[in-house]
């Protein structure tokens, strides 16, 4: 088999599956915020060379609970405008033929969100291409055969996360296929077998054949780079009959819409999307066809008219030489969290007439612990929302969370406010029975565990007025340059606050040595600059997570040993703060 790379110069005209990320992310300024503009978000869509992309489709949508969604197209200069938006936080993405999402900054804690009045630059990069020819066992071209490229590793060599799509094209009358708009990474390419019950072809009942003419275990791994074309990925179809998998879904299935079933093959411990099926309301079950021998996970998913999702636990099955029947999947309601955001004002004169946070511009995101393992591979249309904004009275609901251990990340736009507490409010009777009830109900410190069917209620998120800010620079000795992954940390110096995770702050030092921290509660802090362990990105939500207690302890010890103390008073802005870092002696001094 010939694998050859050629420069990718041909303009491609098919739509991209997936969404675009935002580069660069917009951060809150330390300057006093301007008043909101007239309900519009503007911006520009650019390629990797900074050139405008015309006729790109731009989508602007709010988090769960915000019904507003808009779309538009860019003009010849790549510019767009979406108007008629209420004050809220919005996600912005763009798609264009043959382009893919630019990789998200690993130092960013979450996808970027924007407010009306913002101007957004969206960067897309030209996707890669895989092309080749599919022939029969006798060497004749296979016409109208479905060919699929499946991403198995990202450019960093890690398994892809989240819902995974297969890219599919059919062969022409010469047996030639061309799959374009591929994100960079490592792929396997197959022909035959039925991925879904919606698309039918003459080779559905066959077991998939992977390039060059192999089973999945011996499939060639194709490296795809952005903007490059990989040619000669030919497949000699084996024409081997596949097997079927059938079963039923029970539980709270929808009476009006199909229940979706995902089939994922387990290869070296990683789930690889293999197909979709569905069970119609009041029907007898579901089935997959054209399945090769191997280990598979089955997951069922359904949604109610109110938007609540049901999901089954993955069922591991083995197909070996014959059909598999009798698979039984039971739907369970996904857990949820509900509560209220409250505002606590300050009587300090310095904080008078400061702008309050808007509930519509406040974001609450449930972050699943990285030590819980990967989330189940679910149907790509899965609409489970991990992020929401409070309603007009501060009430919020986070629905459709995958079971696991979580912490709650809160973002808001008000310079002189800070996150004071995240806690569960137990009843008086419960509190009386629980020793150290305040500590146990501190959700910021402990996080929360959710199982199928559970709902965590009575969560209070308190935002308090009186935050300060810190802006300065790290000064290095001599001509030393700022190393990558250098962070400035604030650690509570007051003994009574040593375990208050909401008083731990971190920010990345820029290449010019500058750094800034905002929304910091008043009080005394130790200041320390340190390199990230193992070069992993740091941000507040990660540092505060329950499973990062050892990291916080290590930072605290270094900060206390460094003995650089800072006191922030209510609504105080500290500017031009200098922190001297002597890398040569691995000692930090102010």
Rough outline: globular
What portion of the residues fall into strands of 2 or more residues? 35-45%
Number of domains: 5
Cα-atom Rg, whole angstroms? 27 Å
* Structure class: mainly beta
Q: How many β-strands, per DSSP?
A: 41
Specify the oligomeric state: single chain
CATH-assigned homologous superfamily of the largest domain: Immunoglobulins
Question: Helical region count?
Answer: 5
Which spans of ≥5 residues are poorly predicted at pLDDT below 50?
1-37, 379-385, 428-435, 584-590
The N- and C-terminal alpha carbons lie at a distance of: 62 Å
Largest sheet: 8 strands, mixed
Mean pLDDT rating: 84
What's the architecture of the largest domain in CATH terms?
A: Sandwich
CATH class of the largest domain: Mainly Beta
- CATH fold assignment of the largest domain: Immunoglobulin-like
């Amino acid at each position: 088999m010939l694998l050859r790379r050629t420069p990718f110069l041909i303009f491609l005209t098919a739509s991209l599956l997936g969404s675009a990320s935002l580069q660069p992310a917009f951060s809150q300024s330390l300057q006093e915020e301007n008043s909101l503009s007239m309900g519009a978000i503007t911006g520009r869509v650019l390629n990797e060379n900074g050139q405008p992309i015309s006729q790109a489709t731009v989508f602007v949508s709010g988090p769960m609970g915000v019904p507003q969604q808009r779309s538009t197209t860019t003009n010849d200069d790549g510019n767009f405008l979406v108007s008629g938006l209420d004050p809220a936080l919005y996600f912005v993405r763009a798609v264009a033929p043959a382009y893919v999402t630019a990789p998200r900054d690993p130092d960013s804690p979450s996808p970027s969100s924007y407010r009306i009045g913002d101007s957004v630059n969206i960067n897309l990069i030209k996707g890669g291409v895989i092309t080749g020819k599919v022939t029969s066992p006798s060497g004749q071209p296979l016409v109208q055969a479905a060919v699929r490229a499946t991403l198995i590793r990202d450019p960093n060599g890690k398994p892809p996360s989240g819902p995974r799509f297969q890219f599919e094209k059919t062969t022409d009358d010469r047996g030639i296929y061309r799959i374009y708009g591929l994100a960079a990474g490592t792929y396997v390419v197959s022909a035959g077998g039925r991925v879904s019950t919606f698309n039918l072809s003459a080779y559905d009942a066959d077991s998939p054949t992977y390039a060059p003419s192999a089973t999945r275990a011996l499939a060639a791994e194709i490296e795809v780079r952005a903007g490059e074309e990989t040619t000669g990925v030919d497949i000699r179809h084996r024409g081997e009959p596949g097997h079927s998998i059938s079963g039923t879904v029970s539980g709270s299935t929808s009476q009006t819409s199909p229940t979706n079933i995902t089939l994922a093959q387990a290869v070296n411990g990683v789930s690889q999307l293999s197909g979709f099926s569905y069970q119609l309301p009041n029907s007898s079950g579901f089935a997959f066809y054209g399945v090769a021998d191997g280990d598979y996970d089955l997951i069922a998913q359904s949604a109610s008219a109110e938007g609540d999702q049901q999901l089954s636990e993955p069922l591991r099955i083995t197909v070996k030489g014959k059909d598999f029947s009798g698979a039984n999947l039971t739907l369970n309601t996904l857990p949820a969290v509900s509560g209220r955001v409250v505002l606590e004002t300050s009587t300090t004169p310095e904080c008078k007439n400061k702008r309050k946070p808007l509930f519509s511009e406040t974001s609450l995101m449930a972050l699943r612990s990285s030590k819980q393992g990967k989330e189940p591979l679910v149907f790509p249309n899965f609409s489970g929302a991990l992020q929401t904004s409070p309603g007009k009275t501060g009430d919020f609901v986070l629905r459709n969370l995958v079971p696991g251990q979580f912490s709650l990340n809160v973002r808001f736009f008000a310079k002189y406010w800070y996150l004071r507490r995240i806690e569960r409010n137990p009843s008086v009777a419960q509190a009386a029975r629980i020793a150290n009830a305040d500590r146990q109900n501190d959700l910021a410190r402990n996080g929360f565990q959710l199982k199928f069917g559970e709902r965590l209620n009575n969560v209070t998120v308190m935002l308090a007025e009186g935050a300060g800010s810190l802006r300065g620079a790290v000064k290095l000795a001599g001509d030393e340059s700022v190393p990558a992954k250098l962070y400035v940390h604030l650690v509570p110096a007051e003994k009574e606050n040593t375990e208050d995770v909401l008083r731990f702050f971190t920010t990345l030092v820029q290449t010019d040595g500058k750094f800034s921290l905002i929304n910091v509660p008043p009080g005394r802090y130790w200041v320390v600059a340190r390199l990230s362990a193992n070069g992993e990105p740091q941000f507040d939500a990660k540092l505060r997570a329950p499973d990062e207690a050892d990291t916080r302890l290590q930072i605290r010890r270094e900060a206390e040993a460094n003995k650089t103390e800072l006191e922030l008073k209510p609504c105080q802005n500290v500017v031009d703060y200098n922190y001297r870092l002597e890398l040569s002696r691995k000692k930090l001094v102010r």
